[in-house]
TrEMBL record, chain A:
This is Monovalent cation/H+ antiporter subunit A. It is a multi-pass membrane protein. Residues 71-116 form the NADH-Ubiquinone oxidoreductase (complex I) chain 5 N-terminal domain. InterPro entries: CPA3_Na-H_Antiporter_A, MrpA_C/MbhD, MrpA_C/MbhE, ND/Mrp_TM, Proton_antipo_N. Its main location: membrane. Residues 614-676 form the MrpA C-terminal/MbhD domain. Keywords: Antiport, Cell membrane, Ion transport, Membrane, Transmembrane, Transmembrane helix, Transport. The chain crosses the membrane at residues 6-27, 34-54, 74-103, 115-132, 167-189, 209-225, 276-296, 303-320, 332-352, 373-392, 412-434, 454-482, 502-523, 573-591, 606-625, 632-650, 656-678, 690-710, 749-767. GO terms for cellular component: plasma membrane. Residues 779-796 have a biased composition (Low complexity). It holds the Pfam family MbhD. Residues 774-796 are annotated as: Disordered.
From TrEMBL, chain B:
Belongs to the CPA3 antiporters (TC 2.A.63) subunit B family. It comes from Pannonibacter tanglangensis. Keywords: Cell membrane, Membrane, Transmembrane, Transmembrane helix. This is Na(+)/H(+) antiporter subunit B. It is found in: Cell membrane. One of its GO terms (cellular component) is plasma membrane. It is a multi-pass membrane protein.
Length: 796, 139
């Protein structure tokens, strides 16, 4: 039994949404300094979740639930364990500095308030995502992160590139989210549980379920799109169109890690199978290599970092996919380390851009003297990213090498991939953290100088945290890594971390190889760039262009479909409508073979036969009619005969209405015909007539068969008896039909007559649409109208 | 279509039909009839008058645009349901009152006003469509 979490947790998760509502007003009053009070919100959330650390590291989990849509088992429920606690701490902790940073970065921006709002919404969505227990709630927060990131990436909405990137991120991650929803529904179906905490206890049920493969693929679809795994990696670098605070947040703590979070979350129930340990490492490994290789090619600081994020996510997926204890530990450690150094480095990149006016690494140099604090932070974070001691990145790298090296299968392949990836990561780290600050001072668009405290507080804090986490490796292991690993493995685990490896081991040697390889590659960076550019140019086509082509194809197909379905030709509309109606009525009966029995032929009186004969004659006359007017009138004859039948069988109201409707439709049809200047005869070719005839016959047959089927059901007389009994005493009326219309179901009738009024207005509008030829000769028209008026006067 | 005979008789037919439509409307609560059928009859009357005498005279005879009649009908129908609110009953709960005029008891009820609303909506909407369609013929 899991103890209930305090109510405060719900408040903590929902607090960012409240802050989002306040932010614009705060900015209006305090300008960019609003960042200080606003940052208190994520800080308090951080403090709240830090309160869980003691319990969580002792192996406790907490749940809290509020009814949301109880009819569908959807509740606003939250589940706190090691995994969600660490994520919540990263989101709120880094979020605090991101808010501060955004205050400095967008200082004076006219939309700064709105930006804060979006940022808080994003934060709230992420917090909800990592703490949600109910699967549907989790999905809603999941999609909310897609929507809020759409707003953030497209923040600079006047630029086409921003809009494209935002749309791309939304389509890719939102589409993956739908796959995830399907996966969740299958999980609910397979386990009968709607809460993640309950699902986690039914691992064997799920793994042995026949639905395992679809569940696995659908969940993977969600996780891979969100965490930009190959071949969905293209949206993430494009998301760099967003302002830098967003990039820093997105990459360090939030959305892109959501996919990894999900994989780690479902690992106890979906992981460990052969499918899991093959698919994930393969795709993760490819993503790692693709990400680092593409990163090396870039010269834009943000893009370099963005591609390494893709690579890091690949590494995390790869490690999670191995399902081995040590590799999972490496994954958790690396995730923790990555959040700290990536957040810091992104903010550094933004600060350089903000203060020097360019992010192009080839145009930057010698900033060390102008921006000493930023440089210090960049150096610390860069060393952690490069995996050098004494930083948390180093410990992570050691542990993950332990993990890959010790694997039962594929150890060598995965280790080689990891070594190459890490070496290239070192190259990028050097490119971002060293290159802009050393060497000769270059001429930058702006005169570079140190930014305000708002801009350097975040990088300094995060990079120092990376150092402190390594120096106090034991505490880090016990408080953060151990509980999280327990969640991943589904059993309580303790982790002991050491900063200095006690003896020379394989991982240490691998580390040394990595560093050596990295340094060599860095020295040959320009040549490496050229080589990669050449290779990419020969490949040419990538998923990013593929995305554009898919989107363009969708637009083309829908345009073509619209041209066919809504070409503006009334005949097409009517044909489609009636063909669909006929198919809908006939197909179920044909497919199930459940035709109604042919009813016994009733005894008719002679005058009833006469009326039926008139109806049939009317129909034959319609078919044989030489002119349209004759056909319309013949149709009226048939209708009148049916109305007479209603009268004979005791439905005077119905027959009354039918008479009036038939009269009016003959009048209106005749008027329409003369108005449209149709030729008196139908000149269509025979083929077209046959098609129309078949459709008409199928609709007729469909209705007839359906009505026969319905009348053969036993008649439920409850309603008729009720109305017959109560019409007089309750509604003071003997005519049941009218009583129903104006009294029992008066509200329906009100709606119906409103529709009649609207239809009338619409028809009037249609009639008054002037065609081009009408507009061309208005003068003539008025004279004609005048003449007509004169004529009527004379006629009187 | 405007033969002399038709032109001569149309006004009388129209008047009779309109009268008949009132009759059908008001008897609707106990006998076959009601607002919808009555409205259709009146709309037919309007169409016949328009065909025989021309649309302009038909519009002049109506004084207001038929669509305004429909709008008024909709308003009347909606408002008739409001009366029940004064008695703290749900919207559209029917209310009945008996009034004695010259010794004859006349039942007044909200369903009746509602039905009159339906009648006006049908006359107005169908009539305006018919008149608008006829209009082109005359110019």
């Amino acid at each position: 039994m899991t103890p209930a979490a305090p109510d405060m947790t719900i408040l903590a998760v929902l607090a960012p949404f409240a802050a989002a509502a306040i932010a614009p007003f705060a900015v209006r009053i305090l300008k960019h300094n609003a960042a200080w009070p606003l940052a208190i919100v994520p800080f308090l959330i951080f403090v709240h979740f830090a309160g869980y650390l003691a319990g969580v590291s002792a192996g406790e989990t907490y749940t809290i639930a509020r009814d949301w849509v109880p009819q569908y088992n959807v509740s606003l429920s939250f589940f706190i364990d090691g995994l969600s606690t660490l994520f919540a701490l990263l989101i709120s902790g880094i979020g605090t500095f991101i808010i501060l940073y955004a205050g400095g970065y967008l200082k004076g921006h006219p939309q700064q308030g709105r930006f804060f709002s979006f940022l808080f919404l994003f934060m709230g969505a992420m917090l909800g995502l990592v703490t949600a227990d109910n699967l549907i709630t989790l999905f809603i927060f999941w999609e909310l992160t897609s929507i809020t990131s759409f707003l953030l990436i497209g923040f600079d909405h006047l630029r086409a590139a921003s809009r494209r990137a935002a749309l791309q991120a939304l389509l890719v991650t939102g589409g993956g989210g739908l796959a995830l929803l399907a996966g969740f529904l299958l999980i609910i179906h397979a386990t009968g549980q709607t809460e993640m905490s309950a699902v986690l206890t039914s691992g064997d049920t799920l793994r042995n379920s026949a639905l395992y493969l679809p569940i696995f693929l659908l969940v993977l679809g969600g996780a891979f799109t969100k965490s930009a795994q190959f071949p969905f990696h293209f949206w993430l670098p494009n998301a760099m169109e967003a302002p830098t605070p967003v990039s820093a947040f997105l990459h360090s703590a939030t959305m892109v890690k959501a996919g990894v979070y999900l994989l780690m979350r479902v690992h106890p129930v979906l992981g460990g199978t052969e499918l899991w340990t093959t698919v994930l490492p393969v795709f993760g490994g490819i993503t790692l290599l693709v990400g680092t290789i593409l990163a090396v090619r870039q010269t834009d600081l943000k893009l370099m970092l963005a591609y390494t994020t893709v690579a890091s996510l690949g590494l995390l997926v790869m490690l999670t996919g191995t399902s081995s204890d040590r590799a999972l530990e490496g994954a958790v450690l690396y995730l923790f380390a990555h959040s700290l150094f990536k957040g810091a480095l992104f903010m550094v990149a933004g600060t350089i851009d903000h203060e020097a006016g360019t992010r192009d690494v080839t145009k930057l140099g010698g900033l060390r003297k102008a921006m000493p604090i930023t440089f210090a932070a960049a150096a610390l974070a860069g060393l952690s990213m490069a995996g050098l001691p004494p930083f948390i990145g180093f410990i992570a790298k050691e542990v993950l090498y332990y993990g890959t090296w010790g694997l039962p299968q594929g150890a060598l392949a995965l280790t080689i991939v990891a070594v190459i990836g890490n070496a290239l990561m070192l190259v990028i780290a050097a490119g971002v953290a060293v290159k802009p600050f050393f060497g000769p001072e270059t001429h930058t668009p702006k005169h570079a100088h140190e930014g305000p405290v708002l801009l350097w507080a975040g990088p300094v804090a995060l990079s120092l945290a990376g150092l402190a986490a390594a120096l106090m490796a034991n505490t880090t292991g016990a408080l953060f890594i151990g509980p999280m690993l327990s969640s991943l493995k589904g059993v309580q685990t303790t982790v002991e971390l050491v900063l200095i490896p006690p003896y020379i081991s394989a991982p240490l040697i691998l580390s040394i190889i990595t560093v050596a390889l990295g340094v060599v590659l860095f020295l040959q960076l320009d040549r490496l760039r050229g080589l990669i550019a050449t290779i990419l140019a020969t490949i040419g086509w990538g998923p990013d262009r593929g995305f554009d082509q898919v989107v363009a194809a969708i637009v083309r197909v829908s345009a073509a479909l619209t041209r066919v379905l809504q070409g503006g030709k009334m005949q097409t509309y009517m044909m489609l409508t009636f063909a669909m109606t006929g198919a809908a009525l006939l197909l179920p009966q044909v497919l199930t073979g459940s035709f109604p029995a042919v009813p016994a032929w009733p005894e008719f009186r002679f005058y009833e036969w006469a009326v039926i004969l008139i109806a049939v004659m009317g129909l034959v006359a319609v078919l044989l009619a030489k002119t349209r007017l004759t056909a319309i009138i013949s149709l009226g004859i048939q209708g009148f005969a049916v109305a007479t039948l209603f009268m004979l069988f005791g439905a005077p109201d119905l027959s009354f209405t039918q008479f009036m409707i038939e009269t009016l439709s003959v009048v209106v049809l005749a008027l329409v015909m003369t108005r449209l200047n149709l030729s008196p005869r139908d000149h269509r070719p025979l083929g077209s007539k046959i098609v129309t005839g078949v459709i008409a016959a199928s609709v007729g047959a469909g209705f007839a068969l359906t009505l026969m089927a319905i009348t053969q059901q036993p008649f439920d007389a409850r309603l008729s008896e009720f109305f017959a009994e109560f019409s007089r005493p309750i509604a003071h009326g003997r005519n049941i039909v009218n009583v129903i219309i104006v009294d029992y179901r008066g509200f329906d009738t009100l709606g119906e007559i409103a529709v009649v009024v609207l239809t009338g207005l619409a028809v009037l509008g249609l009639i008054r649409v002037k065609t081009k030829s009408d507009k061309a000769e208005p003068a003539q028209k008025t004279t004609r109208a005048a003449k007509a008026a004169q004529k009527t006067v004379e006629a009187r | 279509m405007r033969t002399v005979i038709f032109r001569a008789f149309a006004p009388f037919i129209t008047a009779l039909m309109v009268l008949f439509s009132f009759f059908v409307l008001l008897r609707g609560h106990n006998e076959p009839g009601g607002g919808f059928i009555g409205g259709l009859i009146a709309a037919s009357a309007l169409a016949i008058y328009g065909i025989s005498a021309g649309v302009a005279p038909a519009r002049r005879a109506l004084k207001v645009h038929p669509m305004s009649i429909a709008g008024f009908g909709l308003l009347l129908a909606a408002v008739s349901g409001l009366l029940s609110l004064f008695k703290a009953q749900a919207y559209m709960t029917s209310q009945w009152a008996a009034v004695h005029v010259f010794g004859v008891q006349v039942d007044l009820s909200t369903p009746m006003f509602f039905d009159i609303g339906v009648y006006l909506v049908v006359v107005g909407a169908i009539g305006s469509i018919a008149l608008a369609l006829e209009e082109r013929e005359s110019d």
